[in-house]
TrEMBL record:
<dbReference type="InterPro" id="IPR023214">
    <property type="entry name" value="HAD_sf"/>
</dbReference>
<protein>
    <submittedName>
        <fullName>Uncharacterized protein</fullName>
    </submittedName>
</protein>
<dbReference type="InterPro" id="IPR006439">
    <property type="entry name" value="HAD-SF_hydro_IA"/>
</dbReference>
<dbReference type="Pfam" id="PF00702">
    <property type="entry name" value="Hydrolase"/>
</dbReference>
<dbReference type="GO" id="GO:0043136">
    <property type="term" value="F:sn-glycerol 3-phosphatase activity"/>
</dbReference>
<dbReference type="GO" id="GO:0006114">
    <property type="term" value="P:glycerol biosynthetic process"/>
</dbReference>
<dbReference type="InterPro" id="IPR023198">
    <property type="entry name" value="PGP-like_dom2"/>
</dbReference>
<dbReference type="InterPro" id="IPR036412">
    <property type="entry name" value="HAD-like_sf"/>
</dbReference>
């Protein structure tokens, strides 16, 4: 379910767990939201993430990480803006290095992963026009994200 839009993942969850008769996907998301509000603000960076981002920023490299696209440092995320702010609020200095942010609720992102929409939208936003997908490196933690990157030609 990683990489899917929230409502899609919630629908799968309530069906597969057999709770769809007592909890709708929408209600599940409401309950989940309350839990995320307490969890996300304490999110830690993955080991080595800060060092890698700073290195790439210093080298003005173009790269794409399943949730993050950097050329002169930019990131893309599959969460909505509210979740992005909650999850990144402790890392403002690091995110100030980012060229741009593309979120999963961006109007150019019509479908969730494995659709390439989010990766292609991010690649189009660099100064000087789109980045050639063949020049993008992807680090992804979900099979749907790996497929999305492949579908984008990255």
């Amino acid at each position: 379910m990683m990489g899917k839009k929230a409502i899609e993942a919630a629908g799968v969850f309530v069906e597969e767990t057999g709770i769809s008769d007592v909890l709708t996907a929408e209600d599940f998301l409401v309950e989940r939201e309350e839990m995320l509000k307490t969890m996300f603000p304490t999110s830690e960076l993955m080991p080595g993430a800060s060092r890698l981002i700073r290195h790439l920023h210093a080298k003005e490299s173009a790269w794409l990480q399943g949730k993050n696209l950097i050329k002169r440092s930019s990131f893309l995320f599959m969460w909505g803006w509210h979740h992005f702010e909650l999850k990144t609020q402790r890392h403002g200095e690091l995110f100030s290095l980012m060229h741009h942010v593309v979120l999963g609720d961006d109007p150019k992102v019509k479908q969730g992963k494995p659709s390439p929409d989010i990766f292609l939208a991010a690649a189009r936003r660099f100064e000087g026009g789109p980045v050639d997908p063949l020049n993008v490196v992807v680090f992804e933690d979900a099979p749907a994200g790996v497929n999305a990157a492949k579908n984008a030609g990255m």
